[in-house]
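B., you asked whether I could sanity-check this one before it goes into the benchmark set. Here's the sequence:
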Amino acid sequence: MHLDIIWNGATTPVDLVDGSVTVGGGPKDDIRLEGLPFKLLTLEVDGPRLSIRAVRPVRVGKQLFPAHVARLVLPGEALTLPNDVVVKRPDDEASRERRKNKSTDFVMKELLTKDPSELESRAATLTCVAGADEGHVYPLAFLDTSLGRGDDADVRLHDRTVSRQHARLLHRGLSWFIEELTTTNGVYVNGVRVKSARSLDHGDVLELGHTMLRFDEGERAPEERTRIEKLPLPPAEAAQPPAAPAPPSVTVQPTDSNSGAESTGSAVTEPLPGRRAGLGKTDLAIVVIGALLVLSGLSTAVLFLR
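And here's what the prediction gave me:
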């Protein structure tokens, strides 16, 4: 197994064989670095599997990992030791290419016949890096995935400090979230207690009881990686001044000037203040009443003259 040790600005490549290797500042350490405690770090190499155990807390990625707890180190992860010494496991390019070639539906078929720790996919995954299930990889193929100790949990953890329904992962759009369910031990992301639904980033470490899981976002389809940006307006459209607002309007029903009956035609919209010159129903009634009064006056005058 290949590791890179970065110290004082220099990178020293180291190739390890299977077995135990100690890292520290003592004369009997397999990898000796001045200024470090004796046997600070023990590396357990088993083929492509690398586990660590430290006598002091060390930082793995974003998280300060406790001492005397075995922890699986995945490709791409880096350990920060005292005096700014960094031990990094380079990303496995061959493993990444294999993940790209397996879709979620293929993973679901393999789940029926293979152990989850053997699977590699481009789907999002949880990898147990510490705890009873260390080394197991759980593909996340559902929108909602429950985590817990119960038989009905989608990701079942063999940890008595984990509740039967401890937490739930939610997949919404292109984002992943975690929320705590009914539990007394809580859920931690990178050492911070989760109080409400929290988004997850690639490489985040989830802590449930004595179990730690690393979240890997997985490979996205090309169309999901494409950024859709707002295009500027063409020069002709951009230079065109905005249209003036239309004047206020009213709706007028046309009438028949001969009979005074309302027309059955459709309504006509005209801008203010223009109205039609024809008489309306009210105006026609006034004219008729006036004519009747005139005729009544004339009749009275004729009778008086007789």
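One thing to flag: The first helix runs from residue 93 to 100. Otherwise nothing jumped out at me.
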